[in-house]
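Minutes, project check-in

Agenda point 3 was the complex the collaborators sent over. CS summarized: two entities, 659 residues total, and the question is how they sit relative to each other. Sequences were read into the notes so everyone works from the same version.
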Amino acid sequence: MYVYDAFDRKLVTERVSDFRDQVARRLSGELTEEEFKPLRLMNGVYLQLHAYMLRIAIPYGTLSSQQLRQLAHVARKYDRGYGHFTTRQNIQFHWIKLAELPDAMTDLASVGMHGMQTSGNNVRNITTDQWAGVAPDEIEDPRVWAELIRQHVTLHPEFSFMPRKFKIALGAAHHDRAALRIHDLALRLHHNAAGETGFEVMVGGGLGRTPYLALTIKPFLPARDVLSYVEAVLRTYNQFGRRDNIWKARIKILVHELGAAAFAKEVETEWQSIKDGALALDPAVVTDIAARFRYPAYETLDDSPKELAQARRDDSRFDAWMKNCVTNHKIPGYAIVTLSLKPEGGTPGDATAAQMDDIADLADRYSFGEIRVGHEQNLVLPHIAQRDLPAVWRALDAIGLALPNVSFVTDIISCPGLDYCSLANARSIPIAQELTRRFHDLDMQRQLGRLHINISGCINACGHHHVGHIGILGVEKNGEEFYQITLGGKADENATLGTLIGPAVPYAQVADVVEDIAAAYLELRQRPDELFIDTVKRTGVEPFRERVYAAR
Amino acid sequence: MTSPLDQKKIKITGPVVITANRVGDGAVVYRSADGGWTTKLDGAAITTDAAVARTLVAAATGDDLNAIGPYVAPVKLLPGGGVWPGNLREMIRHGGPTIDLSAALGA
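CS then shared the predicted structure for the full assembly.
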């Protein structure tokens, strides 16, 4: 966990105090909505279809049990008893009253949480691998660098009014679990040939109306230069990004219209002028930030304790959960446990206040008080001693959170869609719910293997539909909901945008279409271990298109 | 449904009401005939005349203290005399999310 200091706490508290005053002035009529809107957005307060929505950042996806309990408290006291974990390591509350928002924010500030820069044309919540700091395949903990950048860009006046929002993600493993290539700016930690640590810098990714994957503009940036280089990228974008057309304002348009080489040249020129100035990182600063990440006092344990093997033999449900939800940890004798928030008939990413409290309790008892949030809208207990896995499973099973469907067809990423969102054209959640019912049989899910369905209710693509193995995009045609289907997208280190298979299908046919696609895959795959995404890559979308549209 | 947030021209092909969100809690409200706001759709002022709708929107926009973002929304007049939202977006605004929240949350 990162430990906030007095400066951090003062900043957050002062911001809440400012917002309390702004809300009072809005309610008294002293501020018009036109004047108030940019102020509330700066604090993560949106107006959705039926109510205000508060979006709270969970920087680099790391939560303490104390913070999760406070989120439960906010859900219970100010909302309707639940929250929604998003695809960008945020949580949203969808039913908050304006007059109560300052109190809710005060309660959140008491545990170092806030909604600053979860809206507006600034640098949004900086995200990373939800297994950061515990994944065996990472070269070091990327959160140290994420925190450095977060501190630098928080309330940075130069980057508070950019052409559009700006999303940064970091990773530190070969396997990309942070969807790096779909970000405005992505930084991948790696070692160069000399063994030095630095970043591959990628810019210009993003989904939405014009989807692009980020392009590498610097294969190796020495780590000490990360702040100055990020500043150079932001400054270049701020200078050249379009402000005349909201649909062309993201950095992806600038990078792809200008060309990656030309954009990189502009950045390089700016960077050369600032790289040896105040932003050149003193190793002592990095050491100081790193020291504020407190790691658990792990015990010295052996991997694969005997009692674990016995427990797996004794209970097939536990064994199934172990195979699906439990991953190796970098420390011997420990494991990473993923908690699926994708129950049959549920809303992807939603958790009740009671579940949040229960998870916080489990984190305290078994995971050194720490929880992670992934962009797939699941949670993680990152430090479970392997000997405790049977007990953790029993506890999770008792509260419905031991679902062994992680990365399966029912582990669906979905935006809130037209059920909540004022931008949406079509519903997302009911589509996801129907699919979880159609594919509820776990044997079928295992047979289909890794298969990611991503659903967005509009072209803004909060549900990352372009990078779903099966992507579903809601559109409107003559007042009716229709859905475009794409295949072959993925968000990992081999990120790919999906291919549209044909005309949009009506709401009532979406689940049938997905069943047809799944059936076609089972027929087309060459071996049981050929993943869906690999079959699509090998065959192209044509055989799937034929199957889907022949019957319609 | 196409978002009405950027509604610039008022085109009317049937009965409409003026709707907005209440400042205090964001709840969906409808402009009533007496120039106030109501959460009940059947209490809304209904018109089929674009000029009247424009006048209603203009008045509603002036009431910034109570309501946010007023716009014209279609409604259907039921044979029995009731009023119903005219499209899915307005149905969801009127009736809430279409999902069963208690079931979805396992409550």
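Noted in discussion: The longest strand of chain B covers residues 67-77.
Follow-up: revisit at the next meeting once the mutant set is ready.
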